[in-house]
Amino acid sequence: MARTRHTPGRTSLLAAALALLVLPSLVSAVKFSLTAHHNPKPKCLWNYAMSDTLVVISVSSPVTGNDLQRLDMEVVDGSSSRNTYQAKRGLKGETRMAITTHADADLGVCFRNVLDPSVPEHQANKYERLIDLDVDIGADAVDYNAIAKQESLSGLEVEMRKLEGVVKEIVDELNYLKRREMRMRDTNESTNARVKNFFYLTFSTLILLGVWQVIHLRSYFKKKYLID
User: Fold this and answer.
1) What are the extents of the domains in the chain?
2) Which residues fall within 8 angstroms of residue 99, CB to CB, at 6 or more apart?
3) What does the pLDDT read at residue 227?
4) For residue 52, what are the contacts with CB-CB under 8 A and spacing of at least 6?
5) Closest by Cα among 31, 20, 17, 19 to 135
6) Dihedral through CA 194, CA 196, CA 201, CA 205, nearest 10?
7) CA-to-CA distance for 54 and 193, rounded, in angstroms?
8) Is residue 9 predicted with pLDDT exceeding 50?
9) pLDDT higher than 90, residue 42
10) pLDDT-wise least confident of 11-15, 131-135, 193-197
11) Distances (CA, A) of 158 to 8, 14, 98, 172
């Protein structure tokens, strides 16, 4: 009877395919150009990230000659606290940073390209910086190659470690949705209780008002000798 052999390469492909199926990609890569201005408005790119999530941001912006422009970057989130994680001025060449989020919110990477005061504003369209941005969130932000070298892991073990990270993210996402559903349910129950109490109060007030009107009209008619 023939026995089927499962090679590490085939298993790795299956593991990678499973990871793609069970979780949407958490890697955001974009390349764009940003024109310089004396008072530029920030251009922000947003990605959602849960609290206590590792995020690695890689920025490449080559500079040639006398640039006469300064590229600034700020990493913030859209929570009520408006957390600021990083703020760098004068980005040149390759920049890489790692942060850990503090809230369940959109994470924004914002850029401002500041034109040198010596250049008139009407010539601003001649100055722009090319920006290549990569944002890795969660398991995608982990350097598994470094882990494999440090712990002497095989290719299959590395793929399993990746799947472990993906599964953990799925569990965390489900727990977050569960907590959110519980908060929404508590809010609905509280709202229903308030509506019910308001109904009882309104109904009781109408009854008391009706009784008072009957008593008042009866007293009035007695004074006018219209009824006994």
Assistant:
1) 15-141, 155-228
2) 54, 55, 57, 75, 85, 86
3) 65
4) 100, 101, 102
5) 31
6) 140
7) 41
8) no
9) yes
10) 11-15
11) 11, 13, 21, 21
Q: What is the CATH number of domain 15-141?
A: 2.60.120.380
107 within 8 A of 49, measured Cβ to Cβ: yes
Q: What is the pLDDT of residue 126?
A: 87
pLDDT digits (tens, 9 = 90+) for 72-87: 999 999 998 899 999 9
Mean local confidence (pLDDT), 40-44: 94
How far is 114 from 43, CA to CA, in rounded Å? 12
Select, from the ranges 1-5, 32-36, 170-174, the one with the highest average predicted confidence (pLDDT).
32-36
User: Nearest-5° angle of CA 78, CA 79, CA 85?
Assistant: 70
Query: pTM for the complete prediction?
Result: 0.61
CB atoms within 10 A of CB 215: 10
From the list 20, 78, 14, the residue with the least C-alpha distance to 51 is 78
> CA-CA-CA-CA torsion for 172, 175, 177, 181, nearest 10 degrees?
-170
Distance of CA 215 to the CA centre of its chain: 63
How far is 58 from 72, CA to CA, in rounded Å?
14
